[in-house]
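Two entries, shown back to back:
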Amino acid sequence: MSHVNTIASLRLLAPLALLVALAACSGKDEPAPAAPVAAPTATPAAAPAVSAKVQSMGTEELRDLASKALRENRMYAPAGDNAIEYYLALRDKTPDDASVKSALTDLLPYTLIAAEQSLGREDFAESQRLVALIEKVDATAPALPRLKQGITGGMQTALKRTQEETDKVKKDAENRTKQLADQQRLAQQQAAEAEAARTIAAQQDAARRDGERQDAERQASARREAEQRQQTAAAQQAAAARQAAAPAAAAPSLRPVSTPAPRYPAEALRSGTSGEVLVEITVGTDGSVTNARVLRATPSRVFDREALNAVKRWKFEPVGAPVTTRRTLAFAPGG
C-alpha cells in the first residue's frame, strides 16, 4: 500500500512540478531557429543510465528501495540510489507493470527540472546523467534535443572561457618573461660590446699571425709538390727510356723454341680480311711468356684475341733475366 500511496502523492505533485519546469525553461521549448553547435573536441564517456548494481537487484528489492527513495525525496539523485533508476530497472524486469510505467511518467518532470538546474550551474556530468535517465524513460521527450544541445553548447562555452582565461594568464606571464628577457638581453649586450672592444685587437692579431702561418705552409707545400712532380717526371722519363731501349737490347738474346702461328678468325677468313697485330711480350727466365699486351692492331679488335692466345703459347730458351720484346703477327688469307 505504501508503494501505491507514494505514487498517488507523486501524481498530485507532478502538474505543479511541470509548471515550475516550464517557468524555469522560460519558453526555451518554443521552436526557434538556432545556430548549429559543433560538438566539443572532447566529452567524457557517458556512464550507463542505470547503474550495474541497481540492474542486478531483484524485483521485490527494487520495489522496496523505490518506495523508500520516494519517501526520502530521492527521486533522481544520488546516482545509483534514486527512485527513477529503481523504476527503470523494474521496467526492464517487468515491462507490463502499469504502475511502474506510471511512476516513471510522474518522475520525469522532476528529472527535467534537475537537468535544467545542473545545466544552469554548469555541472555537465550531472546534466548528462540526468539526460540519460530522461532518454531511457522516454526517448521521444520534447526537451531532450534542447537539453543535449544545451550541454554541448555549455561545455563549449565553459571550455572557451577556460581557454580564454588560460590564454590571458599565459599571455601575462609571457609579457613579464619578455620584459625580463629584454632587460637581461640589454645588460648582456652592453657587457658583450665592452668585451668585444677589449678582445677585437687580440683577435685581429691572432688572425694576422694565422694568415702568415698559412701562407708559409702553402709556400712550403707548393715547393714540395713541385719537387715531387719533378722527381716523378724524371722517373717516368727514365722508365720510358729503359722501356724503349729494352726490346732492342733484349731481342737478340731470345732464341725461340716453339712459336705456333695464331689461329685465323673464322669471320675474317670468310670475309677475306687481312691485317697485323704488334704485341709486346715479356719472357721469363724459364723461356715462357709471362705477360703479353697488344700495342697496335690493324684493323682494330679483329685479330687481337688470337694474336695474344698465340704468343702466350710461345716458348724460348731460358734466359738469365726476364726480357721484354715486341713482335708483329701478320694475318693474310691463304698466307
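entry 2 starts here
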Amino acid sequence: MNYDAFIVPPGSKISLKKNYDPAYKADFNEKADAAIKLQADIERLANYQNILYAQNTYALLIIFQAMDAAGKDSTIKHVTSGVNPQGFQVFSFKGPSAEELDHDYLWRTMKALPERGRIGIFNRSYYEEALVVRVHPEMLRKQQLPHFPNGNKIWKQRFEEINNFEKYLVDNGVIVLKFFLNVSKSEQKKRFLERIEYPEKNWKFSDSDVKERAFWDDYMNAYEEVFNKTSTKSAPWYIIPADRKWFTRLVVANIICTKLEELNLQYPIVSDEHRQQLLEAKRILEQEDEQTTLTEKGKKNKLV
C-alpha cells in the first residue's frame, strides 16, 4: 500500500475536508482480508521491536492525536498486541496538573520520552497545547506565562518550538511518527450513541464529549493549521482514515513496520573476544552434560 497520500507534505496547506476521506479503505473490501494483513504486521512489529531493543541505538516515539471516539485506545491495543511489554510504554496526557502547570508545556512529555531501544506511545501529546488550548483560550490564561504574544504570535511561537524539539529528537536517534486518526463527525455521533446505549460502554462516555463536539469546526481549523505548520521532512504527519477501525489499525501497523524497516536495524555484532567467551561457555556447558551422563551411568552400574 502506498502511504504517500496519507502524509501531509511539508510546507503545504491542506484541507481535511477536501483532501482526506475518513471512510477511505483502499482496495480492502473485506474486513477479514485486512485482519490477515494486520496479524502479519503485528508479528513483524514484534520482531523489529526485539532488534530495536537489542541494538539499543534508536528509540521510536509514536504520537496519536484525534477527536474523541476516533479509536486511539483500540488502535494502540491492537497494533501493540504482539510487542514485548518490556519494550514499550504508553502515556496518556489529559489536562495538566498543578505541578505540570508550574513547568513549561513540554516538560511533562519530555519526562516520558522513550529510552534507546524502546517504543514510546503518546495518547495525545504536547500538540494539545496548540489544539484544545487554542479552542479554549481560557486554558492558556491558567498557564502562568510571563507574557502573551499579540494575536496569533503565540501559536507561531509554539509551532517553531515543537518543530525544533522534534528535530532535536530525530537528530538524537528518537524517530517521531505522528498519526491523526481522522474520524468523521457522523461516525463520532454513531460511536457516542453506542457508548450511551450499551451498558458495557457507558464508562467511556462523558458529558464533556458532547460539549466538545459543539466546537468541531474550531477543532478542525486548529488541526489543519497544526498539520500545515508542523509536518516536516523529519517528522511528518499521517492523516489516517478512522471511520473503519479495522482499516485504521491496518494502516498504522504497516506504517510503523515500514519506518522500522527503513532504519535497517541489526542485532549487535559480537566482538572476537565475546565470541571466544561464548565458545568457552559452550565448552563448559557441554562438559557439564557429559559429566552428568557419566554420573548417571555410574549410578546404574552400582544398582546392577
